[in-house]
Amino acid sequence: MGNVSCERRRCVRGDQSQAREPLSQLLTSGTAPQVPAPSHFVQLYDADELSLARSVGRYLHEGWQRGDGLVVIASGAHAAAFAAELERLGVDSGAAVRDARLLLLDAHDTLARFLVAGRPDPGLFRETVNGALASVRSDGGSIRAYGEMVGVLWQAGHESAAIALEGLWNELLAEERLELYCAYPIDVFGDDFHVAGIDQVLCAHTHLVPTGGEQNLESAIERAMADVLGTRADGLRPLMKANYRPSWGSSRAARPSFSGCATTCRTTPARF
Description:
CATH topology: Rossmann fold
Helix content: 40-55%
Oligomer: single chain
Number of helices: 11
Shape: globular
């Protein structure tokens, strides 16, 4: 994807980037890794709804196992998918709601409570979000939250408002025992994708959760070959297929290799 500069804030807080554990072990072990707070995850999912549901479900389930309160601010369809994923992982989501362990909020309705002239109002944001967090927090415990209000703003063409909202979330993360998972409907393999357009998104987060599969990656490579090599790419395709080996053939826990930010802004790969 290339390097991304970020002048608004540093994503690496001191030396924490060296100590932060990538979370990829969650796929192969039954124990949840301990990640230093605050952690601010982001997933760029586009149409890969299954990957989003699985990743968010595991993120929430990990918090459930630790005794965290859970807050989900999402569209109705996504909230239902996440609840179903929790059920698949053994959590009675209905009981969790009744026991004030899980709070499900609509992203559009919640966003409307603190938007003023199309921009997030800091005071109203605090009032709205702190009330939601307090409803699931017990004895000063930790909270895992998922929110796609930034994705709603981004999809509506209000990119600067989305980045402003990320800034408000980061201020809250610095003060609360809270972890946050954001999602944007952005296709990183799409023809119209430009890294420069999302540099501030990446720099507002500490971890990038990868999405998509081999077919997406193969399509992106095909487009790049066609653009650079033209008809000469036809001779390379048979050789590539003949020598292809899946990365997990030699490694059970292959890690994503995202290097999205320059030295002033680094986003750590994460997988759930």
